[in-house]
Structures are given as C-alpha cells and as structure tokens.
Amino acid sequence: MTALKILLSMVLALALLLGGLLAWLHFADLTAHRSWLGAMIGNTIGRELRLQGDIDVDVWPELRLAVTQVSLANADWGSEPWMASVGQTELALRTASLWQRGPIEVRLASASNVDVLLESGPDGQSNLPIVSSESDADVQEAGGGIGVVLEKATFANLRVRRRSAQEEAVYTLSHLQLRADGNDQLQIEGEGRVREQPLRLSGRIGTRRQLASGGSIQYQLALQLGDADMILKGRREVPRPDVDGTLQLRLQVEGVPALLQALAVPLQLDGQVPSAGHLTADLRVAADSFEGALEAGFGELTLTTQLRGADNRLEVNGDIDNLQRLASIASVQGLPELPLVFAATLERRDHALAVPAFSLDIGGTKLEGRGSFAAEGVAGNFELDARGEMASELSPLLPELPFQLSTTLELDAGGLQLAPLSVRLGDSDLVGEASLGAASDGQRGALTAELVSKQIDLLQLLAVPAGPAETREGKAEPAAEPAAAAPYVFGEKRLPLAALRGNRVQIRWMVEELVTQFLVLEDVDLQAVLQDERLEITGRVVGADGGEGHNRLVLEAGKDQPRLTLRSQLRDFRVNLASGEVQKAEDIPPLSLSLDLNASGASPRELAASSAGEALLTMGPGLLTNSLMQTFSSDLVAQLVAALNPFSKTETHMQFQCGVIALLLEKGLANIDPVTIQTEKLQVVASGEVDLSDEAINMVFNTKPRKGVGVSADMFVTPFVSLEGTLAAPRMGLDEKGTLLTAGAAMATGGMSILWKGMMDRATGTIDHCKEEELQKYAHPPLD
C-alpha cells in the first residue's frame, strides 16, 4: 500500500504541475517575458531573435499562439543586420490532438507582413541559420506522411529577396491560402509577383488525411507567370514496407521564352526558342532503390532518359533526337543533324561526387570519360578520350579526316587545366598542356599553353571535299546565291577589338614540320602574348629547302586609336609558286622579303588608309612553268601574264633570272617603283601607285626583249599594259600600237608620266638587272 500511495502521490503531483503550467500559460503575460524567450530561442538556433510585439497564448479549447513583430538577425557577414521579419503570425492547434493517437490537427496557420532576405557569403555559404539535424533514419517514419492535418493556412504580404553579387531578385505574394473543401481536398489559391511579373496560382494538392498519412495523392496546379502558363498534374504514392512508391507527373508550359525572361534564367538562347514545352516523369520507388523514365519535349526537340538508382549510385542514359535543333536554340551553327546518345554513372563517395564512367555518341564520334567532383562543387578531375572516323561529321568546317583527342581535365579554385593534352587530326598532331586561370580583380583568367607538334599538314587540313554537299536524304544542297561584290577589299566593319579587353594569353607552339601548298617549313616557333589589350605575335621559321624568317605583329587595342605594327623578314625561301615538279630544290627561285609597316584605325579600311612603311621583295634564278602561272592565278593575273610574256603559250618553262619589287607607303599611298622581272628572253619593268584610301590602282607595265638571245621586238605586240580600276574590281588596258593606254596612266612625280618613263626605259633597255652591281641597290638588311 505504501508503494501505491507513493505512486499515486507522484501522479497527482505531476498532474498538478502540468495543470499549473497550462494555467500559467493561459493566464500569464508572456509579453513581459519576451526578452527571455527571445534569448532562449536565439541560443538554440545560434542567431539573435528579437521579440518586440505582443505574445498571446491560449491552451483551451485549442492551443493558440499569436506573436507580433518578430525579427531574426542576419549572418555576421550579411549586407543587412536582419535576415527576416514577421509583422504577425498565428498558429492554432486542437489541444487534444497533441496526446491522442493520430496526426496533429492544425486549425489555422497564418503569417502576414513577412520580409525574408536570402544571400550568399564570400565563400558561398548561405545566410540561413545552421542547426544540427538528425540522420534520415532517425526522422523517417513508416508511411512517409507529414503527421499533420491542416484545415486552413493564410499568408499575406510575403516578400522574399534573393541577393547576389550580380543582382537582386524580388518575389512577393500578396496572398496565399490553403483551405479544405467539402470533399476534404486542400485547395490552394494565391497571387503575387516574381521579378515584377504578375503571378497567379491555383489548384489542389490532395486530401488532408492523405497528406497526413502518406497515402496516394493526386494533385493538379495551374500557374500563370507573366505571359507564361504552366500546368502540373500527377500522382504520388509513398513507398511502404510492402508496397513500392510511385511518382507520376506531367508539366506543360506555354510561353517558354516569357518564362525564361521572367525568371532571368542565365541561358544565352539567341536563336528561335520554341514556345511550348513539356516534361513527363514516371518513377517507381522501392525501399532502397528507384527506377523510371523522363521524357521532355521542347518544340520539335525531344529528350528521353532512363534512370536507375540504389544507395549512393545513379545510372542515367538517354538520347536527344537532334543535336542541330538543340544547338540552334542557342544560335550555335555547324553542328550535325544527328541524335546525341548519352550514358553516365554517378556515385556519392564521402565528400565527392564520382563519375565512374560517362559517354556521348554522335554518329561515328564517341566521347568517353571518368572523374569526380569535390564536395564544394568546384574542384574536379576528369580523364577524357574522344575519337571519330570523320571530323566533318561534327561540323562541315572540319576536314574529312579521322581524329583522336585525350586529356586530363582538372578544375579547382585556381582555374582549369588540361594536362596532358594530345590531339591527332589526320596526319597532324599536337601535344602539350593548357590552362585557364580563375578570374580575379575584374580580370578574366589568363590562358596559357605550351604546345608541340611533329607535323601540321595544312594541305590535308584545308582540303575542300569534292562534290556537292549532301543532306541526310542524300540530295544535293541547292547552290547559294552569289554574294554581291564588296566595294572594298579592306572592309569598313570594325574589328572585334573588344575581345582583347580584359583577356590575358600566353601561348607557345613549336612545330617540327609545317606543310603548306607552296613550301615546307621546319622548326616553326610561334609565340603569342596578350596583356593589357596589347597582342604580340612572333614567329621564327626555317625552310625545309633553305631559308629563314623572323616575323613580328603587334596590335595595341588599348590606345585611343588602335595601332598595328608588322615586321617580316624572309631570306632565301624556296617558295614553289609556279615551278611545278622540279628535279631539285635549287630549281625553285629563292624569295626574300623585308617588310616594315605601321597603321592605326579600328577597321581594316582605316588601317589601310593610315598605313606607312616600306617593303622590298626579291627573287633569284630558277625555273617557272608557264601553265602553272596561269592555273594558280586569277583570271586577271593570267591575262596579265599572257600579255606581258609572248612565250607563255608556246613554251612550257621560263628561265627566271631575277625579280625586284620595291614599295614605299605613306598615309595609305603606296608608291611602287621599281617592279623589275627578268627572264632569259625578256624584261618587264613597271611602276605606279595604289591609293589605299579609295583602293585605286594606277600601274603601267613595259615589256621588252633581251638583246643577244635572238628575239625580235616585233614579237611584243603589246609592250605597254596598264592595270587600273580598284583592288576590288581591277581591270587591264593595253594598246597594240604602244601609243595610248587610258586616263589611268597618271602623272608621276617630277612631271614625267608613267607611260613616258616606260617608253624611255624601252628605248634604252639594255641593262642587265640581274648583275650583282645592279642587285646591290636592293640588298636586304641582315636578319634581326
């Protein structure tokens, strides 16, 4: 009896204590204790909570809590002192449901005049208060219900601001209400604004009991955001020990461009964005795994995906029916009209996301890789391998050659690095490493590269496929309309100098053998440096058949007027412009060039009109093939060669002895004097000018026979030939009587016309221009 009395006494004492606590909560003035309550809650969440208004509590017949003027402090690094404030909030529960079996019954949940600021700190952390959480196993309950039956919820004047270093987005709700209807369905209705776009929301989200117990839920929501309309409907079945869960949904969107604009989605979609889109999902969820399918449509573009997951592993595979259609949305041109097939396996390992394998297939091209992302979502390491039988399948701009690419990609806070990097395209190869540093202090990351190639075959890389382009159906594409002739060779379109602004580049590329159409170069050393809007490119080359060259280009775009400087020095290169198949390299005339040029301007036309400098081109003895000279030249040049050389149609080869072209350029006016070409049987001398301001040409050529070689002057029926017009539309004039050309034969310096000067030269044309003492006048300076 004594023990029973003690137990009854303890129960009575506990009941009295609980009754006293409830009575105190019911009748006490909690407003007087708001500082203490705020401090207690603030210590729990690790952030100051300020209670400045009234606190009202009732415990019977329902538990009701009403609080006004609540403020929650921001993170210490936040841009404002307070993260959130609530003007008024109220929560009402049926008191008996707190100790009875079954869900808690919420009669009313309301809040008004709510202002929330969400922002990220310098290291990417959120300003939301961080509280310790239990593991999923501790909080997950069988059935997956929320354990709450909601009767009514109302919210008014809600504002959420999301702030970042780039912008601040504002989302507002003037009102939002959830209320159970006569069939126990929770109806939702509200309106507000998102980024100044009007928002309307309506629909149903299942019955109250289904939400509380985790039963089957059918939902349908309609949302209008600006000019965009969305409908979301589906069914959810929460997994239970003996039943798999399912999720079925379909999202339809009308007005996709308006939706992307309203949400300020950072996608560069410059092409024709389809107006309609949809997403369908059908997933089956078991206790420890799930699988299902996603299907999305975006205009005529279709994406299908299969998903399978278990524990920390996810397998994804699918396809996009038309890669060209996808790229055209972002105004990316040149991609093939082929399906893209993809597959990937993802695993969560400790603090990283591993990708044991992924692949992309486009026609005959395959990309494979493996790697991982670090937990912070920035650092990553990937090994990539790509190969294909025809690079042109990816883009018509690429040649019809097989290719291979392999590299290891590393991404961290310092930037992106490709090391090692190996590329092969046909017979051309490239190995080395490249990196792109992270942006800092308003500067883009610096691009650096060290590259080496054993061979670069430009003949193979630039080869044009024979025959007309064909579509997937095999039909030839119609010929494009010929473009209207441009009035100027040097166009007036401004150069894209803005691309140099803020960029930093340092590249070195060494090529053991560079194959071109006219010569083979060896030991090519190219370097490019871009810093502070100043681009400098230098190149040193050696000819496989002799010769050496030094070249330097400097473009200073940061000045008030962009400035270009070009210096080129080539010595004794055997450039096979028209020698054809020769027995030995010595049969190719050696070519030397000295060029010093500077100009200023923002367009090619401005640069040409302001250019100044000088150039000297000389050629030594060798063999030229007359047919090749006309085959590899324009119609006009072919006519000019035929007019100046009466042997071009009767003799196969020409024994070339020497050539000199000197040019002096000042304020866009190029004075070309002399032009001297000497072969075994004839001499061609010329002089004139080209005004780059309007691109007008005024040149006169004078042809004369060499004495002592048995050639009669009567063979030269067109000794004088003029070249007139413009660079874009040149024309040739000739006079078989040698008395008159056209008005293009303008007055030269000193009052002597170009024509008269040519006639005097013809009358006294006994000089051998290829003698050493004559060529000494046009000797090139030594290489720098």
From TrEMBL:
Coiled coil: none annotated. GO terms for biological process: regulation of protein targeting to membrane. GO terms for cellular component: plasma membrane. This is AsmA family protein. Signal peptide: none annotated. It comes from Parahaliea aestuarii. Residues 3-139 form the AsmA domain. It comes from the Bacteria. PANTHER family: DUF748 DOMAIN-CONTAINING PROTEIN (PTHR30441:SF8). InterPro entries: AsmA, AsmA-related.
